[in-house]
Amino acid sequence: MAYLERGYKALGGEFLLIPIAYMIAWGAIHYFIDALEETANEMFIQEKEK
Fold first, then answer.
1. SS in 3 state form for the chain?
2. Is the Cα dihedral 41, 47, 48, 50 positive or negative?
3. Which residues contact 32 (CB under 8 A, 6 or more apart)?
4. CA-CA distances (angstroms) from residue 18 to 7, 15, 21, 48?
5. Which of 8, 21, 28, 42 is most exposed, with minimal Cβ within 10 Å?
6. Under a CB-based contact definition with an 8 Å cutoff, are residues 12 and 2 in contact?
7. Structure confidence by residue, pLDDT tens digits, 6-46
């Protein structure tokens, strides 16, 4: 559809959305996993000290 409107082949800024969304999702998932691991390690240490 964009080709019909422009009259020529071109890549627009909409293609930047895919890698940006991927990087945001990747970072959020890894941040969440790291936070879970840290919490689990803290709980293990506290349990071990008792």
1. CHHHHHCCCCCCHHHHHHHHHHHHHHHHHHHHHHHHHHHHHHHHHHHHHC
2. positive
3. none
4. 24, 6, 5, 45
5. 8
6. yes
7. 788 777 777 888 999 999 999 999 999 999 999 999 999 99
Model pLDDT, residue 12: 72
User: What is the residue whose two structure tokens read 């941040």?
Assistant: 31
In this prediction, residue 4 carries a pLDDT of 83
Single-letter residue type at 21: A
> In this structure, what token pair is assigned to residue 15?
């293609």
| Sign of the C-alpha dihedral computed for residues 31, 32, 33 and 34 taken in this order | positive
Q: Token pair 């840290």 is at which residue?
A: 38
